[in-house]
Amino acid sequence: MPLITTNEMRRVERLFHETRKSFVVLGSAGTGKSVLLRRLVETSHKRVEVLAPTGLAALLVGGQTVHRFFGFELGLQERTRLRITDAARRDERRRQSLASLDALLIDEVSMVRADLLDAIDAVLRDHGPRPGEPFGGVQVGLFGDVLQLPPIVKDHESQAFNGAWADGWPSPWFFDSLAFRSASFVRVTLNQDLRQCEDDPDVKRFTTSLRRLREGRMQPDDFALFNSRVTTRQPDGSVSLVTTNDDADKENNRNFNALETPVFRHNASRDENWPEKWRNEEPVPEVVDVKAGARVLVCANGAGPGLVNGSIGTVIRCDNDEVILLVDGEEKPVHRYTWEFPVWEWSKVEKRMLRTGTTWYSQMPLKLAWAMTIHKAQGQTVDGPMWVDLGHRVWSGGQTYVALSRVRRLGQLHLRRELRREDVLVERRAIEFICEGDTPPSFEEIRPLAAKIYRETRKVRDVVVNERRLAAVDLERSEQMMTHAESLLKEANVRLEASRQAEVRMTAIEKRVSAALDRARQISWLDRLLGKF
Ligand SMILES: Nc1ncnc2c1ncn2[C@@H]1O[C@H](COP(=O)(O)OP(=O)(O)OP(=O)(O)O)[C@@H](O)[C@H]1O
Ligand SMILES: [Mg+2]
After folding, report:
1. Residue among 195, 196, 375 to mutate when testing ligand 1 (max atoms within 8 A of CB)
2. What integer is the mean pLDDT of 127-133?
3. Residues 415, 470: one domain?
4. Cys staple from 216: which of 307, 426, 429, 502, with CB 3.0 to 4.6 Å?
5. Which domain holds residue 358?
6. Which ligand is nearest to the CA of 190?
7. For the segment 140-161, what is each residue's pLDDT rounded down to a tens digit?
8. pLDDT, tens digit, 9 for 90 and up, residues 410-420
9. Which residues of 295-309 are buried (b: 16+ CB within 10 A; e: fewer)?
10. Which ligand is nearest to the CA of 194?
11. What's the 68 CA to ligand 2 centre distance in angstroms?
12. Domain count across the chain
């Protein structure tokens, strides 16, 4: 299809090429934000860097992650003490490249957290071309849809985003960062659906229903349309989207077990001071099994030459030390990787997070990748069949919308279960941001209200997450009961079969006995008859 240029796209092009103004490009899924971003870079005479919050999203626009480019440590970026890795601090080349930077384009900004945008601002104010100015004088272009997935906040980080902490943020959204509120961003919204753009009336119905799902205005006929795609069998060759890492693991293990190649097991090692609260938050599992033929995702930057966090490949050979992947037709080796994490504790006295040390985790940085979570799929276009399993319940604003909007046509979509009203979650704070208009309020103005809304949203999410946990326990229990019942049934069948055979034998014996009796009777009758003679 030829490249379409709308008036809004032209406006973004003019802003980027002809001015130094920062801008934010909004628009629903598939309105061409990422394609426009790439086009700006390709036609630019500026020194521009392309970034995204996650490895997969960065790969889609040919960029790198925000963390990798700036050398930020993982986890919370504290405003009063910016956490840049030692290597990055020593890296003179990186500092020089920041000083000559003209523009920074960030895709999937809905998942960029407020602390991260403030950290970017702080580094550029120190090392950018115009020190002291917002973003160091670098033109910043943000691209994303705030009605898709919000940033991830781990339980131990939540105090930083609910107004409890004096140096914290009123919510985790990028637009509630000090940096966003202090710099003036021109806002442009793209409106034309390009992922699902055919003039076919069926495609139009699909896009209308998707739009209503995004805005939380679903009508009964929208539910009916999506639910006409429910099927209990996963279509062959489909990409599988699920809500949790656990569900992705189940699906991946099923595919993995079907491979008949030998298994190579890798066991993790970790710092003896690894915090207990981070059990189950490891970057890859404690045990990583690899087989030739497996589809895998690389989970670290620097795991091997030419590989980044987010690269997907197929294992062609492996042993206990090395795994050779086929990525885009090229063979690439992967080795064991060690992650380092700073440890933070919430200080009740100081009412802020305090750094208490560093810890590490080492493992083969690979995960199976036949199925992926909806969070990982944000930004992707799926061209073949897609199987969406919303599980027990979704818990995050935009989650169902992101899942269903990956395909171009309704016919590609297959749902494992019916869509229900509670699957349609829209973040209130995001709607407020969309409605702000041309004179956005300052950081201090939004702070109290935004914090209140975020606390309420988080409470709802916690209830849903807890419900999910309980439902998972119930499911596991009923699965165990089912297995037990199945084994009892099997045993009962074996016994029934044995008793049936015994019955057959009994009948045969009875027949023989009755025949013997008959013969005995005949003999005695004959005896008596002969006696008479
Ligand atoms: N200018 C364009 N002209 C024609 N087709 C386009 C254009 N831009 C995008 N498309 C089509 O729409 C699809 C989705 O585009 P893109 O990934 O840029 O959307 P997006 O707004 O970034 O979506 P998301 O919010 O899901 O990341 C592309 O794969 C392409 O097929
Ligand atoms: Mg995109």
Report:
1. 195
2. 91
3. no
4. 426
5. 194-275+336-425
6. 1
7. 999 999 999 999 888 878 888 8
8. 999 999 999 99
9. bbbbbbbebbeebbb
10. 1
11. 20
12. 3
